[in-house]
């Protein structure tokens, strides 16, 4: 999609997934878990030029009206919209420099404990042996791929100091809603068919059903080039080298099952709604909004007892979902749900899932920031995401890959996983991904 | 693999389905260009399967869903011909 130049006031209806995150935000704020946010981290070879970064951030701010938007809902059941009125200022993206940082991961953990100023913050991190740029973004306006596209644009602005800022529309609702309720009901049928299997009682989350105030935690699991090649070889042997989505989801589900076993608990099943990117791989827009479809998966304990069987079952559900149009059906239902006030939406979600929401969150965002080698004069050495999760479900496993090196981020809420349980989860991921002892 | 006539209408159809409809590239590349390098991934493969099945009235069995068959438009042409028994 091309970004079209805009002038005057702008309005952008929320996507179905934006509204889902707004409902989660309501739940999280209510119990003291902050907001759904994410960090996108670029590890750099050298310190980037602060002035170039600040100037690029200023032009990004001037170019994207949604960074200045406020949420507007007209009437009780109107579709909520982002609305913004010019003039745009250059200060919507706060840039902060941090000196003397000793550990990037500890810095990121501290950053997760603070609220997001606006929708996007940029943190320039400097230490004796480290340089990094960390983007912190609110999930109601960005998804992980969108955060990468924003950084791509930031790098492009920094590389061309003469490129002027011009406001563009870089947003859009990925699903065209049906024209009538009857058409919608027809499209939503595959969702209703699956709803009985997916509703609460059939699955469990590690964090429990009752939301508690808790801090966001994460552990980054890095795999070097040779380990990543090994991981791909193993995945190819199981999947025929073709469907990676079912493979990584199966690995994440088995890691959660391992923690339940460690607790001597035996849930009836595992449920996860997997986001699927709507943006085409090469497109640089839309940057904003959650541009994803959703595919649901449900696994029973027998499915996850063996990696091949788990992958096969996810693969079977993946294929039947696509054949039956489940993604479109979820798109319609999420589109309708946008009309609910967030407080009603999240209670509906909790009621429908016996409070659990899902067994865990999961995504694989694919190749991280492909084609961008440097930013503000500094070469990018590595990159990864840290999404925060709500509790429930309390845990998530997220993958991405940068230049042939896979990263897995285990994210959880304090109290949802103990330190030993994080070790158990990581151990299972390593064993499945690398084989045998996982070393 | 059999050589493919660049004027083959089946090849033109596979190029259009894979490059234009699924990958969103307006100017489809050649028969041997790698679809995976261009960003074809799980969801795209599934969409491509559905489109090919619908366009040609065939069912692509599990055994045909391989990296070799889905790597290039030429591989897709060979696969469709094999399934239709016209290889």
Q: Would you kindly provide a written description of the structure presented here, covering whatever features stand out?
A:
The complex is a heterodimer of chains A (439) and B (87). By secondary structure, chain A is of the alpha+beta class. Chain A has helices at 16-31, 50-63, 104-112, 144-159, 181-198, 225-239, 244-262, 301-304, 307-324, 326-337, 342-352, 419-434, and strands spanning 4-5, 10-13, 37-44, 70-72, 81-84, 94-98, 120-127, 130-138, 168-169, 216-222, 270-277, 292-299, 361-367, 374-375, 378-387, 395-402, 405-413. Chain A folds into two domains: 4-169, 2-Layer Sandwich (Chloramphenicol Acetyltransferase); 181-434, Chloramphenicol Acetyltransferase, CATH 3.30.559.30. Helices cover 38% and strands 24% of the residues of chain A. The model of chain A has no long low-confidence stretch (mean pLDDT 94). Chain B has 87 residues and is mainly α. Chain B has one domain: Orthogonal Bundle (Non-ribosomal Peptide Synthetase Peptidyl Carrier Protein, Chain A). Chain B is globular, with a radius of gyration of 12 Å.
Topology:
The complex is a heterodimer of chains A (439) and B (87).
Chain A: E1 4-5, E2 10-13, H1 16-31, E3 37-44, H2 50-63, E4 70-72, E5 81-84, E6 94-98, H3 104-112, E7 120-127, E8 130-138, H4 144-159, E9 168-169, H5 181-198, E10 216-222, H6 225-239, H7 244-262, E11 270-277, E12 292-299, H8 301-304, H9 307-324, H10 326-337, H11 342-352, E13 361-367, E14 374-375, E15 378-387, E16 395-402, E17 405-413, H12 419-434
Parallel strand pairs in A: 6-7, 13-16
Antiparallel strand pairs in A: 1-9, 2-5, 3-8, 3-15, 4-5, 7-8, 10-17, 11-12, 14-15, 16-17
Chain B: H1 9-22, H2 42-56, H3 67-71, H4 73-84
